[in-house]
Amino acid sequence: MEFTNFVQKRQLYSAHRVVLSGVFWLILWHLFTSSNGATKEEERRALLQLKDSLNYPNGSALENEWVGNDFCAWDGITCGSNLHVRYIFLLNRRELGLGIWYPNATLLSHFENLESLDLSHNYIGSWIMPEGICRLQKLKTLSLYGNLIQGGIHPCLSKMTSLVYLDLSFNLFQGNFPSFIFSNLTSLDTLLISNNKFDGTLSFAIFANLSNLRYIDLSNNDLMVNTESPSWFPSFQLMFLNLRNCHLNKDQGRVVPSFISYQTGIVQVYLAHNALQGALPSWLLYNTTDGVLSLRGNSFRGGIPLSSGFETSRLQLLDISDNRLSGQLSSTIGYSFPELRYLNTSFNAFKGEIPSSYGNLTKLEALDLSNNFLQGKIPINLRQNHASLVHLILSGNNFHEETMPSFSNMPNLVDLHLRNVGFGGSITRSLVNLPILQMQQLHVLDLSANSLSGVTPPCLSNITSWKKESEFELFSGMWIPTYIDYILKVPLTTKANSLLYEGTPLSLMTGLDLSMNQLTGHIPKSFSTMEKIESLDLSHNNLVGSIPPEIFQLHFISTFNVSFNNLSGSIPFGCNIQPFDESSYRGNKGLCGLPLHTACTPPNNKPPQQDEEEERAGIAESDFFFFSCIAVSYVVGFWVVILPLLVSKNWRRKHYAVVDSCIYICCNKFSGFLARIKDCC
């Protein structure tokens, strides 16, 4: 009996304990959800404060986007499953006229679940209480690209061990590079700090244990990057490495970083402008897979070390320009680099002929062999039937062909630069009926500094791209750069300045340069049909006659140079040609008028009395013409406004609505003005 009572009491006690436990957890859940609700309201208020700070003192960004209580639906905000803010994406939101932004970083500390923060291009000058960012322990992505942030990186950044992506590039950070910060960020996959003002020495060994590192860009600072000392071995496998202009291994013999030889899957390597010395390592050419190798602006010597065996490289872009390389161009390049799309060997000392194997690079889009000592003839398979070639730059060599060779069946060719290559003979015979005139994509043709003679061919105006809008203008409305725009240095005269254009949208430039030849005859009037041309240089020839007034039809022209010819007559006056300075016309003894200092003085054999009468008549005619133009303009303008109102009911309704709204606004303004006066009285 006693045992039975004991069991019953035990069961009752267990039931009470279950009930109490349930009540306890229910209370905890209620407290938790109540706390969450308050936190979400704090997040909403913090976002609104961030918006106010972004718009200080009188901006209007996000005024219409950030309304209501559901901040998870606001533009640039993404929430997680728990309805807390996970992503803040506010790229380029601050208005330019508001000046530099100094946000308070403590506003960000409310977002404890934040994983990604992007405030790029917002004119941030510095942070108020920057340690507020470091409280975001779950933050994985931080992008402050393209701001104006000064000073150093706050040391607390070393505690943000969850960071995977960090972009601080294109700012004004300065001082010694804080190596200790980045050695702690073991989760880091991407580190971008290019184009700042960091200085001092940076040992690449600080990244040795960052096994997740894939992308790193330290370019364009004042750093001296040392990759060889102390001895270290990389635990990472990079895909992207940019050490452009980093004073690489200045105290270690300016050698190529040896750790790159262990990067088996690296795709893009940029080591330009580091004064690297010695021979070009062959392993560097074959270690980069399916990507880019840029070695421009160094001091490498010797030739291009192609493999002697059956090894091939999948390299697509190779830039070895501006070095001290020499010798002959290899005839096996077509086999060694079958995937090559861009090749730039300009500004070196290569000699001999261009191997015909260069024409066998069927995927080649851009070839720059300019400013070397190449001789002989241009291979026929490089100038004919090469459908993939877009940019061909051979200027500054010594081909010395008696006549200009034919360039045909190259439907995608945009730039053809043959400046100072020794071409001679009659330009008329070379160009008339040549397939080059049917190249619909050709934008730039440079035949300057040769020995071409004869009359300037009017048929040049038949080149299609100079007469109509390009596909870029018709369809894109914007230029999206490719790396080819950065590896090619294109000589082109614009605004009377002859420059090497690097990083220029080559496919958007249009120009014809026939300067420094032996051309004769007149400037063809047909050139006035080249409505889309931007640069026309006919200087340093033997042209005669006057400047055709029809040139005024070249609405897009930014450079027009006819200096040092035998032209005569007055310089035409017009909105397109006149802005150019004296240098565009000097060296022509027969030219007169502005901007030259030689005034045009037409013969005057009439008696003074007749001149006075004609002057008075001219004034009267001018007055009559002036007032006639006013009357005609008034009549035309009147009917342009009134006629649609008489014909269209829809126009009348819209017109009346606009007038009514204007009256309403004016009345309100005036009423407010009267009210303020009354208050003052």
Please outline the helices and strands.
Elements: H1 2-54, E1 77-79, E2 85-89, E3 116-118, E4 141-143, E5 150-151, E6 165-167, E7 172-176, H2 179-183, E8 190-192, E9 197-203, E10 215-217, E11 222-226, E12 240-242, E13 268-270, E14 277-279, H3 282-287, E15 292-294, E16 299-302, E17 317-319, E18 324-328, H4 333-336, E19 342-344, E20 349-352, E21 366-368, E22 373-374, H5 380-383, E23 391-393, E24 415-417, E25 424-426, H6 427-431, E26 444-446, E27 451-455, H7 471-476, H8 484-487, E28 489-494, E29 497-502, E30 511-513, E31 518-520, E32 535-537, E33 544-545, E34 559-561, E35 566-570, E36 590-592, H9 608-647, H10 649-680
Parallel strand pairs: 2-3, 3-4, 4-6, 5-7, 6-8, 7-9, 8-10, 9-11, 10-12, 12-13, 13-15, 14-16, 15-17, 16-18, 17-19, 18-20, 19-21, 20-22, 21-23, 23-24, 24-26, 25-27, 26-30, 27-31, 30-32, 32-34, 33-35, 35-36
Antiparallel strand pairs: 1-2, 28-29
Helix pairs in contact: 9-10
Description:
Its main location: membrane. Belongs to the RLP family. Residues 42-79 form the Leucine-rich repeat-containing N-terminal plant-type domain. This is Leucine-rich repeat-containing N-terminal plant-type domain-containing protein. The chain crosses the membrane at residues 12-32, 624-647. By secondary structure, the chain is of the alpha/beta class. It has a domain at 409-613: Ribonuclease Inhibitor (Leucine-rich repeat, LRR (right-handed beta-alpha superhelix), Alpha-Beta Horseshoe), CATH 3.80.10.10. It is 23% helix and 19% strand. The protein contains ten helices and 36 strands. It has a 19-stranded mixed sheet, with no helix packed on it. α9 (608-647) crosses α10 (649-680). The protein starts with a helix and ends with a helix. The model is unreliable at 23-38, 470-482, 493-506, 617-622 and 673-681 (pLDDT under 50).
